Every structure is written in structure tokens, then in C-alpha cells.
UniProtKB/TrEMBL annotation:
GO molecular function annotations of the record: L-amino acid transmembrane transporter activity
Protein name (Swiss-Prot/TrEMBL): Amino acid permease
Species annotation: Caproicibacter fermentans
Compartments, record wording: Membrane
Transmembrane segments: 9-31, 46-67, 88-110, 130-151, 163-181, 201-223, 235-258, 278-302, 340-359, 374-391, 403-422, 428-445
InterPro entries reported in the protein's UniProt record: AA/rel_permease1, AminoAcid_Transporter
Pfam families to which the protein is assigned, alphabetical: AA_permease_2
Keywords, alphabetical: Membrane, Transmembrane, Transmembrane helix
GO cellular component terms, A-Z: membrane
Length: 453
């Protein structure tokens, strides 16, 4: 078999991947969590969306600067190698392949199934929801593993579709809210409630991180992107700006239709109620179908990165069985063995999410954490050495790209870490224990460890 992926994606696909991976479930799934964290304080909620959006733009701009220099297999691993060193790059790649990609992919499959159950009026915690979750997970894997070109077209299509409900709610919700006074009520009542606290802001920021996360996975197609040194930076920057704008205006539009206390109480059902109020029962249900499709588009993008996780290590001669996981199928031009392992890891993390987060009595005692949030914050922590070394080594860059933006990016990452510790408390400690064990499992497969002796 071959071990080289062909250049098959254009700028439109890359932008669609950034927007498509990020926009999807998070803005719907985490709106409830943000409102609860802020006590229904809409201004503070919008502040959380803007803060994390700014951090995303700064980080994506800094990576875009590096993307003009490096072009290999998996962007984040490349940047870690070129700035900090190969050994650090290996452990970043191991984390992405074994923890980050499969945890987010499994959560997205469940969120897609949950919205489906809300639409059908089924129980969102029972067996049917988990059955649909597994179906979506396997279906997304099959699409990416059997036809990557078709998966790319699906990404573009779902990106367009998912913008429909967000833009409709942004425009219609804002106009209706301004005319009937709902927007003023929600903002004024929240501001006068006195419920805004620092802890509330930090907790909402961590929740919002899930809604913004995933853009870095778009760098996994760096070597498959046509003219990637120009197109990847464009995709990261334009994609990030589109996401921030859409999120903020959707959140404002939602505040113009449904009282915040109803959204806090009903979660995803509250979002469906908002669409039904504007467009009627039939129209609201149809648009909510678009919401489900948007979630599936996000799942497709995450699965694309998940299937390449172990491959990105294997082509560097690292990780378990490099010769096996570096193979690329000559017919589908996909890393088949890496794809299968990626799906299995998704299954393992889905089981953990079911037992640790969805159960009234968690299966794992204190060793339970929210897989939709803490792995994301870990990645932000992993960015810091990369940004520091870029700041130190980027002598050919101008002052703005070498010092200003990396400094802002580092401060943003530190802020996210502090917010996670405040929001999750002692759970962070137990998460770090699990994280440490999984990272230690990768030590025997570290080829650079032997060379250091």
C-alpha cells in the first residue's frame, strides 16, 4: 500500500471545514450551560462568547503564521515538532490521537442523537438515544473511510445547511425581540439580577470553549490541501471570524424569542421552542432538522481528524506499529488501519462518557470528568510551549507576528486553564491522573526516548 495522501481539497473545503467543525452542536448544546453558569445573565453570556472567540482568533492567527512555513501531515504535530522538538510533537500527536479527537467525536455523536430524540419526542437519556449515537458514529466513520472526497463535499454542504437556522434565528429573533421587548427584558432583567459573578463567567467560558473547539483539526488536512501555505492560513482566519460573528448574533436572536428562564430549564428543547415560535410547528421542526444536520456536519469533520490520528504518528515512525498504521489504501486514499483504530477509540470514550457524565450515579467514582471540556483546555495548555518557542525562534517574522500575537495567544491559553480550574475544581485533579496514565502508555512507543539515552 501507499503511504502518501494526495492533494484533493481546495480553499472552499478548508474554510467549510473550519466553520463546519466548529459551528454545529456547541452553540445549541452549550447555550443552556452558559445561561446556568451566569444565572441567566445575557450580557455576561455574550461576554463569554466574545472572550473565547477572541482567544480562538488569536490562536488561529498564530497557527496561520506557522502554516505559511510548515507543510507536512498533521498541522498541530508539525508545529510542535518545528518549534519545541520532535519528542514534544510526538506526545502532542499521541494526545490528539488517543484523547482529544475520540473524546470530542464521541460527544458529538451523542449530541447529534440527543437532538434527534428531541425532534422525535423520545427520551434523551435512554437506550434509543445511545443506539442512534452508535449509528451516527459508525456512519460518519464509513463516510470518511470509504470516500474522503464525498466526505469533503458533505462537509461543504452541511456547512451551508447549518448556517440556515443560525442566520434565521439571528435575524428574525433579533427583529422580533426588539419589536416585542423580549430582548430588552432578557438583557435588563439579567443585568439587574445581580447573579453575575467571576465564577459564573469562568464556568461559562469553559462551556463556550466546546462550542468554539475543533478548528485546529482542520490542520490535519494540511498535506492534502492544494496550495496549503496560502489556503490554510486563509481558511483559519476567515473561518474563525465567521464563527464568532454567527455565534454572537445567534445568541442575541435567541434572547429575542424565549425568556432566559425557559432556556435555562429546557436546554435543547428550549431552542426547538424558539424556532417553533418564529416559524410555526412545521417550519420550526424543519429548521430543527437543519440543526441536526449541522451537528452531523461537525461530527463528520471531527471524524476526519480522528481517522488520521494514529496515521500522523506512524508516518513519522512513532507510535505503535508504524508500518501498519502508515498504510494508505490505494483505492480510497485513506489510512484504513488508522481509521479503524480511531473508531474503536471513539467507542471506548463514548462508553466512558455514558458512565461518567450521563449516569445519575457515575460508574467510575471520583474519576469522572466532562469529556466535552477538559481535553479542550488541555490542548490550550499544549499550545503554550509552541507559542513560546515561536516567539523565541521566529526571527524572520515581523514584530506583530513574532511578539504581539503569540503573547496574546499565550495569555489566552493561561486564562482558559485558570477558568477550567475554577469551573471544575477537584475534577481537574482526577482528570489529570487519567491523562497522566494515558500519556505514560505512549512512552514505550516514543522513538525519541531511546535516542536520548
Amino acid at each position: 500500500m501507499e503511504s502518501t495522501l494526495k492533494k484533493k481539497y481546495g480553499l472552499l473545503t478548508a474554510i467549510a471545514m473550519v466553520v463546519g467543525i466548529v459551528i454545529g452542536s456547541g452553540v445549541f448544546f452549550k447555550a443552556e450551560a452558559v445561561l446556568k453558569a451566569t444565572g441567566g445573565n445575557m450580557p455576561m453570556g455574550i461576554a463569554a462568547w466574545l472572550i473565547v472567540g477572541f482567544i480562538m482568533i488569536v490562536c488561529s492567527y498564530t497557527f496561520a503564521t506557522m502554516a505559511t512555513k510548515y507543510e507536512k501531515v498533521n498541522g498541530i504535530v508539525d508545529y510542535a515538532e518545528m518549534t519545541v522538538g520532535r519528542r514534544y510533537g510526538y506526545y502532542v500527536g499521541w494526545f490528539m490521537a488517543v484523547i482529544y479527537n475520540p473524546t470530542l467525536t464521541s460527544v458529538l455523536a451523542w449530541v447529534s442523537a440527543r437532538f434527534t430524540c428531541v425532534l422525535l419526542g423520545w427520551d434523551i437519556t435512554g437506550g434509543p438515544c445511545m443506539t442512534i449515537t452508535c449509528f451516527y458514529l459508525v456512519g460518519s466513520y464509513a463516510l470518511n473511510a470509504l470516500s474522503p472526497v464525498l466526505a469533503g463535499k458533505f462537509q461543504v454542504t452541511t456547512t451551508v445547511i447549518k448556517l440556515i437556522p443560525l442566520l434565521l434565528m439571528s435575524v428574525a429573533g433579533t427583529l422580533i425581540g426588539l419589536s416585542n421587548g423580549m430582548t430588552v427584558r432578557n438583557f435588563t432583567q439579567a443585568a439587574e439580577s445581580g447573579s453575575s459573578t467571576g465564577g459564573g463567567l469562568f464556568a461559562s467560558v469553559v462551556a463556550v470553549a466546546f462550542a468554539y473547539e475543533g478548528w485546529i483539526i482542520a490542520t490535519s488536512i494540511n498535506s492534502e490541501l492544494k496550495d496549503s501555505k496560502k489556503n490554510l492560513p486563509r481558511a483559519l482566519i476567515w473561518g474563525s471570524l465567521i464563527v464568532v460573528a454567527v455565534y454572537v448574533f445567534y445568541y442575541i436572536g435567541l434572547a429575542g424569542v424565549v425568556p432566559t428562564e425557559i432556556l435555562m430549564k429546557n436546554g435543547q428543547a428550549g431552542a426547538e421552542l424558539a424556532f417553533r415560535k418564529i416559524f410555526g410547528p412545521v417550519g420550526g421542526s424543519l429548521i430543527f432538522v437543519f440543526v441536526i444536520i449541522s451537528c452531523l456536519g461537525t461530527l463528520n469533520g471531527l471524524m476526519l481528524g480522528c481517522t488520521r490520528g494514529m496515521y500522523s504518528l506512524a508516518v513519522r515512525g512513532s507510535g505503535p506499529m508504524p508500518k501498519v498504521f502508515s498504510q494508505v489504501d490505494p483505492v480510497t486514499n485513506m489510512p484504513g488501519n488508522s481509521s479503524v483504530l480511531g473508531l474503536l477509540l471513539c467507542g471506548v470514550w463514548l462508553l466512558y462518557f455514558f458512565g461518567a457524565v450521563l449516569q445519575t450515579r457515575p460508574w467510575f467514582g471520583p474519576f469522572c470528568f466532562d469529556t466535552s471540556e477538559l481535553p479542550i483546555i488541555t490542548l490550550y495548555a499544549g499550545y503554550i510551549p509552541i507559542f513560546l518557542l515561536l516567539l523565541m525562534k521566529g526571527k524572520e517574522l515581523n514584530v506583530f507576528n513574532r511578539f504581539v500575537m503569540p503573547t496574546f495567544a499565550i495569555l489566552g491559553c493561561v486564562f482558559m486553564m485558570i477558568a477550567a480550574c475554577i469551573a471544575h475544581g477537584v475534577s481537574v485533579v482526577y482528570y489529570l491522573m487519567i491523562f497522566g496514565v494515558i500519556m505514560c502508555i505512549g512512552i514505550p512507543f516514543d522513538p525519541y526516548r531511546k535516542k536520548l539515552r
